[in-house]
Specification:
Largest sheet: 4 strands, mixed
Helix content: under 10%
Order of helices and strands: EEEEHEEEEE
Radius of gyration: 15 Å
Strand content: 35-45%
Shape: globular
Number of strands: 9
Distance between the termini: 18 Å
Number of domains: 1
């Protein structure tokens, strides 16, 4: 009998890539950049709420800045969002990562 695979999402950034279980926030695989900084090695758990939001939006890969996470020392890094600016001509452009209050994430099917 085949076992069901739990959904994961890849989180990328300048210090490497993490593959994370969407429902629990547990890191299931990591590729760290070869630099002297701790980078993502100090991340112990990712925020399931921000993971579920990205996954429900159809993302299987996202930027580390869009995901909340806990560091080994207990510090929580809040998720950020890209600020959208009206270009005055009926279009939008994306500016910079900013803090944003989020609504609760939708539930995902396991």
């Amino acid at each position: 009998m085949a076992t069901a695979t739990r959904p994961t999402i890849s989180i990328r950034g300048s210090h490497g890539t993490l593959r994370v279980d969407v429902a629990t926030g547990v890191i299931v695989d990591a590729e760290h950049a070869p630099d002297p900084e701790p980078g993502y090695r100090d991340i112990v758990l990712c925020d399931p709420v921000s993971l579920a939001r990205e996954y429900a939006a159809g993302f299987i890969e996202t930027d580390i800045l869009a995901i909340g996470y806990w560091l080994a020392d207990g510090t929580f890094a809040e998720p950020l969002t890209m600020r959208q600016q009206d270009d005055g001509q009926g279009g939008m452009w994306f500016d910079d990562w900013v803090e944003m209050a989020y609504l609760p994430a939708p539930a995902i099917a396991a």
